[in-house]
């Protein structure tokens, strides 16, 4: 055998052995679960847009129980639906599970210059999280509220025209226009409403569609190819929506920096109030003291020697990107599900309308009035129990080998929550678990649910940073719509909803009629 043939054979044997070794990980540990095939493990089964991963996990949980193991390419993952296990990983042992399960195509969280708060880990995450947090402070939310209300008013105009003559509307389309409009104005430097003419919409939408599934499959199985793909996308950003969007954000931030410099040169006095998130991030140096306090509090075990206390230009682009992506789809879906559940539960809708009429009598809805919409809060919480739309990201990566609920979990193992099972577990929620019942949240005794059993926004220190913004947007829009209209099902309403998706779980459509209330 020639030397080169020997080399090639050795390479192939080594290559195959590595993949078989990875694939047999859980078999060697004696952990049950679906096996799939060498190389892919079960990854290929998560690429069906029509049958989202969350449904696949749920099916397997029925077969294998609350803790089982799968391999996804070269990654090993435990899928869990035991609340104690979840609480341990997300809250109690956060120091051992501070990373996320990422696809290599998302870049190396420790090296990517544009890493964002969602993908980063460890010190980098802590720093980005702390510097991003003021964007969702009470003061900032009160400012943002004006922008949200402008978009609400604009959407109301579109709803009025669209629903004229009893026409059925796909509410998902309307909510997507709305949430993109809001986030475009607060994170992209957009100045006017762009509803129904926003060129960003198809780009942002395509991130959540099925087209990218195969790319993720390839890089999941062969991570070595990810840097090559990333290089090509960075050279030709228009062929890949995420890179294309980053490029657009980069231009918006650059324009703001140039404008600030030009104002400064010509001695123009600029108001100290930030216009939007771009300003907030450019000013983030100002929050140095806040960061130092936080750092002492939460990462007490970690020795912090020297930290960079402001965001770099690339980090600003990363943060704005993730706010845009995380803020647009999730909120639109949550609104769509709430609306569907209200239309199919008229008595609950009526009770909610009564609350809105009582608490929000003026044409404008104020921040303080929103806080009084307690039943609305219950409706939203119950909606997200029914449809935990972002559960694909309910995961953590083990950063240090540890034991959880008696099971040794090795560094590098992912823990993925099967949230749809958890949120439908009669042991947690009672025998009426299948009922849409906002009243279950009225007692205010949420401790029980929170302990690893309910996590629509995640759990622990990495809980969704935009949660309060999402709730504000949702409550504000629903208050305006419900004062004017009653949602009704139509012949084309899908009941039950057909759920599709990849990163998030979406209804295929939410076709509803909006009956004007003055005709009640
Ligand atoms: C109904 C709407 C929303 C839902 C259901 C949702 C859900 C989630 C979930 C499940 C996580 C993962 C949490 C964890 O790992 O424990 C997350 C993280 C995150 N979300 Fe949201 N989200 C929503 C709205 C928003 C909005 C409006 C924004 C920003 C504008 C946003 C920005 C983020 C960011 C930046 C993270 C990463 C946090 C971190 O890793 O520290 N989300 N979200």
Automatic annotation (TrEMBL):
Pfam families according to UniProt: p450 (PF00067)
Keywords attached to this entry: Heme, Iron, Membrane, Metal-binding, Monooxygenase, Oxidoreductase, Transmembrane, Transmembrane helix
Gene3D superfamilies hit by this protein: Cytochrome P450
Residues annotated as binding heme: 464
Transmembrane helix keyword on record: yes
Record keyword Transmembrane present: yes
Record function comment: Cytochromes P450 are a group of heme-thiolate monooxygenases. They oxidize a variety of structurally unrelated compounds, including steroids, fatty acids, and xenobiotics.
Name of protein: CRE-CYP-13A5 protein
Organism whose genome encodes this protein: Caenorhabditis remanei (Caenorhabditis vulgaris)
